[in-house]
Write a structure and sequence with these properties.
Helix content of chain A: 25-40%
Largest interface: A-B, 58 and 55 residues
Number of strands of chain B: 16
Radius of gyration of chain A: 23 Å
Oligomer: heterodimer
CATH architecture of the largest domain in chain B: 3-Layer(bba) Sandwich
Strand order of the largest sheet of chain B: 6-10-9-7-8
Number of helices of chain A: 14
Structural class of chain A: alpha+beta
CATH topology of the largest domain in chain A: Ubiquitin-like (UB roll)
Strand content of chain B: 15-25%
Chain lengths: ~350, ~450
């Protein structure tokens, strides 16, 4: 039998072996008898003027997880730390926090010798490490991510094959932990965008990619999810504790459905295609200008920052560039049905 | 929805139900724990009080019908597969409202949850990815000897938990394992593809830097399920308290597996819908609601002097239950345990206090309400175990090691008396499909 990885590679684990951050390397850093130092975010918005950090030292136990540190602080050190958890088994998704700047499930993440533990971003803090999940719940509800059958349910057993469910399959792993929402830079823009965020779109993909579903999910993804506001930075995939291919397996398929359903309103996709057809490759500044039009100029400092960092090159866009083998690209466009904007 | 992997269906079921509730615009209280059933002068249900943890408020809800679905009491033990809130609340509330309880002593156990990390108490290396085949986990003792192989020991998985547990008990008696570790489980004999295709177990191995193809993991017992709880009519889900219904593992009729739980919920809802006209309008007993609010606010008192925290009381109870109410137990140990529980209640509860009396998201306050319920139900559980003078399934007494089908093929029912004590009675099971073919046999030699 051919060798294959025991657990599929995911964005979460890319590079961890190279940087000495593999699970085995993590576990080798500490031994029983060692001490774990945890700086914990403390804040009660009803009583405190500002957040603060408190430092605790916790004895390490074999293969210790972050949740055990939080529980030790609450129960053994006489603390009054507010932190959510229910299952301690990577199923309920309630214990998500940020450890040293990275979103993790406390129950699943091995401890580090020194940790700064904070609540997730992009949601109000209720107390200490507990965030208000109601905003996320509302966005999910707005996307109506429950099955609306194309045909009436014919009874049990329902024919359902692996190939038919392959597209929806990975999104079924979502445990609504909100790690991806915390990591998403677009969600972090707040009211500047109506982007629903990765997790609600994963919830939508569950039904949108289910062959039994019968309503126009592309329209929902576009009109209520603002799916094209996703910048495909893959931050969500990097932090997903259950390794869902959020961009490639949920958001990109939703973008395709949106384009198929509402090509005229899918401006991002139309501009993207037009640029590639005209120039042979994507041009970020032309894309931003084409999608946002004059609104792109509302933030001149952001534009300058992007320019300085080489993310965009307006001069190149202005004077145009074109790959030398553009004819081949256009042949591809001609061959792909539906490729024309 | 369709779960794509063993052990994942519950998450999808709960997610779907949650969305259905949201879709139907049914009012609900998030992160709110029921604390008491309120009864009217006629003894029927008139409402329920609850602690809204997020807001730090006590609420009273007027109702003529309440469906309890609070799950098990597995958090009695230091190791448990239960979510953190399964602390006997439903059993305690129903008992105080006048319901009967049964078979509380029938605690089940997972035998193959990983020992480390300590918080992974329900992360399984579980012997049935492919039931009845060679593609299932095997258990090995401290000498590396195989002592459980589902393919041969429990080929159709009719009672895998019990059989595993009894095989483990023999290893413990032989000094080659402990209930809290010292034995191992793994899939080293199985093609890794089969494990990853049908289960999520490989992810746990990977997270520990281990190989599912080459390594075994040290495992330990966790409290998992209870074949006991509130006495309920399984045809209606009604209890003997008018207006009180039960669904799922908090009932004494079912072990709480997902299929019967789903059925219970539907049946309970249908029964309530039919009963509501007869039950009539509710009138909230304001005095009882006020008394319960005062009790709850009293539990939020700051800690002073040498008073224990709720977490310390819980820990003391769990240690006690582990030492005296684990698999091996006898009358002497259980009697000591009962006395110790009563001491905890009398000596620790009065001075118990919180490190911080803030009302919002104060989990210690929730722990304080749990502690009261856990102590009460632990005492009832120990009494039930003392009353059952035999061994059966996952229940084992070293002083009564035989399964006794002459006297104990029965429900062990506890009835509250008017003076706050317990009456015991037995009620034979109706057995239309299966009857044991022996009267008495050493329980460890019976494969169920």
């Amino acid at each position: 039998m051919a060798e294959r990885p025991q657990v599929p590679a995911s964005a979460r684990n890319i590079g961890r072996d190279d940087t000495g951050d593999s699970p085995a390397a993590r576990l080798a850093r500490l031994r029983e008898g060692d001490t774990v130092t945890a700086r914990l975010f403390r804040f009660d918005p009803t009583a405190d003027a500002a957040p603060r950090f408190e430092t605790y030292r916790v004895p390490y136990t074999k293969w210790m997880r972050v949740l055990e540190v939080l529980t030790f602080v609450s129960e053994e050190l006489g603390g009054d730390l507010a932190h959510r958890w229910f299952c301690a088994n990577r199923m309920c998704g309630t214990c998500a926090v940020r450890v040293n700047g990275r979103e993790v499930l406390a129950c699943w993440e091995p401890v580090e010798p020194d940790m700064t533990i904070e609540p997730l971003r992009n949601a109000p803090v209720v107390r200490d490490l507990v965030i208000d999940r109601s905003g996320y719940e509302r966005r999910v509800l707005d996307l109506t991510p429950w099955l609306e059958r194309r045909e009436p349910y014919a009874g049990f057993p329902e024919p359902l094959t692996h190939p038919a469910m392959a597209s929806a399959d990975k999104s079924l792993d979502c445990i609504s932990c909100m790690c991806c929402l915390s990591a998403c830079p677009v969600v972090g823009l707040g009211d500047e965008t109506n982007f629903a965020g990765p997790a609600p779109l994963v919830q939508l993909a569950r039904v949108a990619l289910d062959p039994r579903d019968g309503i126009d999910r592309g329209r929902i993804a576009l009109e209520r999810g603002a799916v094209f506001d996703c910048v495909s930075c893959y931050k969500c995939e990097e932090v997903c504790p259950v390794s869902i291919p959020i961009v490639t397996g949920a958001i990109e398929p939703l973008k395709a459905l949106a384009f198929k359903s509402m090509a005229r309103k899918s401006r991002h996709a139309r501009v993207f295609l037009a640029i590639v057809r005209a120039r042979g490759r994507i041009d970020p500044s032309a894309l931003i200008l084409g999608v946002q039009r004059l609104a792109a100029l509302r933030h001149p400092f952001r534009v300058l920052k992007l320019w300085r960092r080489g993310k965009i090159d307006p001069l190149k866009s202005l004077f145009g560039f074109r790959l030398p083998d553009i004819a081949q690209i256009r042949q591809v466009f001609a061959a792909v049905r539906g490729g024309r904007p | 929805m369709a779960a794509h992997s063993q052990g994942e269906s519950g998450v999808l079921f709960m997610d779907l139900r949650r969305k259905q509730v949201l879709q139907a615009d049914i009012p609900w209280l998030e992160e709110t724990a029921a604390t008491a059933l309120l009864t009217g002068a006629d003894g029927a249900i008139a409402g329920v009080t609850a602690l809204d943890l997020a807001r730090g408020e006590v609420v009273a809800i007027e109702s003529r019908a309440v469906i309890l679905a609070t799950g098990y009491a597995d958090r009695f033990y230091p190791r448990s597969t239960a979510t953190r809130e399964m602390s006997a609340d439903g059993i305690a509330m129903a008992w105080r409202a006048g319901a009967e309880l049964m078979n509380l002593e029938m605690q089940w156990w997972h035998t193959s949850d990983v020992r480390f990390p300590l918080c992974w108490q329900r992360t399984q290396v579980y012997p049935n990815p492919i039931i009845g085949s060679s593609h299932s986990a095997r258990l090995y003792n401290s000498d590396g000897e195989l002592f459980f192989d589902q393919e041969t020991d429990a080929p159709v998985a009719m009672g895998p938990y019990t059989i595993q547990l009894k095989r483990l008990a023999k290893q413990v008696l032989a000094g080659k394992a402990r209930f809290d570790g010292g034995y191992y489980s793994g899939f080293t004999h199985v093609a890794p593809d089969a494990v990853t295709a049908y289960t999520d177990y490989a992810k746990a191995f990977a997270a520990l830097g281990k190989s599912v193809a080459a390594d075994t993991l040290e495992t330990a017992c966790s409290a998992h399920y209870r074949q006991g709880g509130i006495v309920v009519d399984p045809a209606t889900m009604a209890t003997r308290v008018p207006g009180l219904y039960v669904a799922g593992g908090v009932g004494g009729h079912s072990n709480g597996l997902i299929a019967p739980v789903t059925y219970d919920g539907m049946l309970a809802a249908e029964t309530v819908a039919g009963d509501l006209p007869r039950l009539g309008p509710a009138v909230l007993p304001e005095d009882k609601a006020a008394a319960e609010e005062a009790r709850l606010l009293g539990l939020r008192r700051p800690r002073s002097g040498n008073g224990a925290t709720p977490a310390q009381v819980k820990k003391a109870l769990r240690t006690l239950m582990d030492e005296k109410m684990g698999f091996f137990k006898d009358a002497a140990g259980m009697s000591e345990a009962l006395a110790a529980v009563l001491r905890l209640r009398e000596e620790m509860l009065p001075s118990m206090g919180l490190a911080n009396a803030t009302p919002r998201l104060n989990y210690a306050w929730l722990d304080a309400t749990d502690v009261v319920n856990m102590l009460d139900v632990a005492a009832l559980t120990i009494r039930g175990a003392l009353h059952r003078t035999e061994s059966r399934g996952p229940f084992y007494r070293t002083d009564f090691p035989d399964m006794d089908n002459e006297n104990w093929l029965t429900k062990n029912i506890l009835t509250p008396t008017s003076n706050g004590d317990v009456d015991f009675r037995s009620e034979p099971y109706d057995l239309p499909f299966f009857k044991p073919d022996f009267v008495r046999r050493p329980s460890l030699e019976v494969d169920w």
